[in-house]
């Protein structure tokens, strides 16, 4: 159950990063509210996952899901650059996440 909470918390990190961008500095209220709710729920779920997962593992996986997920959302929805170096960096993050999961 802790891993499911952690994955959900990571996905919510992607949601709040995207909606924070869409809020344009918190000037668009709907996106601002979604951002704040997603941040709170993401942190609560992360804290629940940390009850049984090691701090280093949980935090690394959470931030990694958020980083790679936000990168992908940026590519698909915001038209951000998909340079080979950025893609290689994202793949290295994913490799690190897999290694972290295996190690725990």
How does this structure look, described?
With 104 residues, the chain is mostly helical. It has one domain (2-103). It has helices spanning 2-22, 29-49, 55-78, 84-103. The chain is flat. The mean pLDDT is 95.
Number of helical elements: 4
Q: What is the strand content?
A: under 5%
Derived from helix and strand composition plus strand pairing, the structural class reads mainly alpha
* Succession of helices and strands: HHHH
- The global form is flat
Low-confidence stretches: none
CA distance, first residue to last residue: 15 Å
Count all strands and give the number. 0
Helix content: over 70%
Main sheet summary: none
Average of the residue pLDDT scores: 95
* Total number of domains: 1
Family: Belongs to the drug/metabolite transporter (DMT) superfamily. Small multidrug resistance (SMR) (TC 2.A.7.1) family. Gdx/SugE subfamily.
InterPro entries: EmrE-like (IPR037185), Small_drug/metabolite_transptr (IPR000390), Small_multidrug_res (IPR045324)
Keywords: Cell membrane, Membrane, Transmembrane, Transmembrane helix, Transport
Subcellular location: Cell membrane
Briefly characterize the structure.
The protein has 104 residues and is an all-alpha fold. 83% of the residues lie in helices and 0% in strands.
Features:
single chain, mainly alpha, 83% helix
List the helices and strands and how they pair.
Layout: H1 2-22, H2 29-49, H3 55-78, H4 84-103
Helix pairs in contact: 1-2, 1-3, 3-4
């Amino acid at each position: 159950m802790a891993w499911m909470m952690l994955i959900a918390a990571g996905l919510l990190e992607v949601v709040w990063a995207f909606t924070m961008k869409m809020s344009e500095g918190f000037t668009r209220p709907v996106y601002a509210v979604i951002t704040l709710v997603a941040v709170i729920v993401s942190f609560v779920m992360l804290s629940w996952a940390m009850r049984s997962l090691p701090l280093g593992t949980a935090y690394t996986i959470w931030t990694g899901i958020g980083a790679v997920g936000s990168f992908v959302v940026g590519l698909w929805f915001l038209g951000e650059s998909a340079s080979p170096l950025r893609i290689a960096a994202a793949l290295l993050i994913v490799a690190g996440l897999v290694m972290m999961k295996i190690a725990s």
